[in-house]
UniProtKB/TrEMBL annotation:
Keyword ATP-binding set for record: no
Keywords noted in UniProt: Hydrolase
Domain of life: Bacteria
Xref: Pfam families: Sortase
GO MF annotation terms: hydrolase activity
Protein name: Class F sortase
CDD domains recorded: Sortase_F
Record has Hydrolase as a keyword: yes
Length: 251
């Protein structure tokens, strides 16, 4: 079935297109997810990034129920008889502290054996026009520096092109990933983080769920993003984004 899907997509991806210039990569230090983002990393040869959506609080620290103390019940003491002294109520025990994920470590490489991806990563920030940068190489993937990092609170957002003016690009086969597939990310400290795909969705660019993709989490997750759907030769872009959701494998 995978071979049949690849053949069908390969024929579609090799349409002749007139390339548009692609914005070069630049690192934006301290980029906030509260900026107006245009989802990128999904060029269809000469595709423009997806439409903008405002994520007002994605960079805020996520709320972890384990760190929130339950309110202590306040019960009035009964009045004691004049000749007796009322005993003081026993203090309620403090909840046990729970370990929390940190900020993680910068990712440097991505491997997806099922679709033969094994690439080094570049950094993607936010350009001066408020748009998320895209890789300047059709065969490279990039990670959004304003989001999460492997081993820390997520999500880590990784983007790549689906095709180029001359044929398939690095994420051409991303549509073949299925629930249960494995994704590996190496970080700058040399640690390999394993993730398992739990959801795969196509979203219209005009109705993009920015919060689902970029919104802050208390857990370690990945988002792999590219373009898919119909390619409009007039607007020079695909009409949809493919998003793969994966969570860290523990134990």
């Amino acid at each position: 079935m995978r071979a049949t899907r690849r053949a069908a997509r390969g024929a579609e991806a090799r349409r002749v297109r007139v390339p548009l210039p692609v914005r070069g990569v630049r690192t934006t230090a301290g980029a906030a997810l509260a900026a107006v983002l245009l989802l990128a990393g999904c060029s269809g040869g000469d595709d423009a990034p997806a439409d903008a959506a405002t994520l007002s609080d994605a960079s805020a620290a996520p709320t972890d129920p384990a760190h929130t103390k339950a309110p202590v019940s306040s019960v009035p003491e009964p009045e004691a008889p004049p000749s007796e002294e009322a005993p003081a109520p026993a203090p309620e025990p403090e909840p046990e502290p729970v370990a929390s994920l940190g900020v993680g470590v910068d990712p440097v490489a991505l491997r997806i054996a099922d679709i033969e991806v094994d690439e080094q990563m570049m950094e993607l920030g936010i350009a001066d026009d408020g748009k998320m940068e895209v890789p300047d190489d059709w065969d490279r993937v990039g990670w959004f520096t304003g989001g999460g990092r492997p081993g820390g609170r997520g999500p880590t957002v990784i983007a790549g092109h689906v095709d180029s003016p001359t044929g398939p690009a690095v994420f051409f086969r991303l549509t073949e990933l299925e629930v249960g597939d494995r994704v590996e990310v190496d970080d700058a400290d040399g640690t390999t983080h394993a993730y398992e795909v739990y959801r795969v969705e196509n979203f219209l660019k005009d109705d993009y769920p920015t919060r689902e993709v970029f919104g802050a989490l208390a857990t370690d997750e990945l988002r792999l993003v590219t373009c898919t759907g119909e390619f409009d030769t007039r607007s020079q872009r695909h009409d949809q984004n493919r998003v793969v959701f994966a969570r860290a494998i523990t134990g």
